[in-house]
Amino acid sequence: MQATLGGKTVLITGSSRGIGAELARQAAAAGASVLLVARDDTALAQVSRQIRDAGGHAHPYVCDLSDFAALDALVAQILAEHGGVDVLIHNAARSIRRPIARSLDRFHDFERTMQLNYFAPVRLSLGLLPSLRERAGCIGLVLSMGVLIPGPYFAAYLASKAALDVFGDSLAAEFHHEGVHVCSVYLPLVRTEMMAPTKDYANRNDVLSVEQAATLTLRGVVERRRRVITRRGAHLGAWNRIGPMLTTRMLSFLYATFPPSDTPSQHPKIHALFTKYVGGSPL
Ligand SMILES: NC(=O)c1ccc[n+]([C@@H]2O[C@H](COP(=O)([O-])OP(=O)(O)OC[C@H]3O[C@@H](n4cnc5c(N)ncnc54)[C@H](OP(=O)(O)O)[C@@H]3O)[C@@H](O)[C@H]2O)c1
Does this UniProt record's set of keywords contain Methyltransferase (predicted)? Predict the structure, then answer.
């Protein structure tokens, strides 16, 4: 990582906590000058201080990426202060776990997730693309394993991640020959504040740590891999492509087994088995 990231300017969105903060710490430890972006100035200052105390270079930028005027001002400031970036990692996102049947009066959920998870990374990419082309840079997309096998509960979130995934594919196809690389990372569940509100996940035994998720992501970027997919993600994704109707039946069965918490399970024995061996809801 040091050979690739040493002396490079690496921008990481959503780096005030969770996976983004750890990405920033690991990139800085590898010698990168890290630009940290998020809304919480206190948390950003704290992560930046940790990086500097460890001998690294950190530059915090407070920005609400959902606000396009603020995002454009951020791009202008970064170009003025750093001339551009070598690596851009789109990590900031919001997740919503809510069934569509309970979203009938919540169109704003779909708008807000698209605004932050899709339109903001697209706009930031467009603003920084000239410098990424000059530097034969790399764009990292922090996506979700759910994009490979989209299921119930996460329609708004997964649709926004899928849109970003496809944008990344087009970017890669148009700029690969110029040396600009796109690395799409399909993470499974990671123990952060994002998954904390879902009590069904509290005891899941297949959850990555923040450190594991950040290392997986950064290694993919450094090694210029096109996609980073865990073995389970690859199996589930292949299953979804080969047998889409069977996949839908399975997911629908699991949704009936693990309905919203105020609704009784239609398959209590399967529910108990999953709870015993997986530690909670697989959805
Ligand atoms: N945790 C999981 O299970 C999991 C699984 C698969 C993929 N992922 C993906 O991994 C990435 C990081 O997730 P995480 O679990 O680390 O989430 P997290 O702990 O909730 O952190 C989200 C980060 O995004 C920032 N952010 C949120 N809204 C923002 C806005 N409007 N403008 C700028 N920054 C904003 C937050 O900082 P501020 O609040 O300070 O703005 C924070 O730094 C996301 O893309 C997520 O979809 C997570």
Answer: no
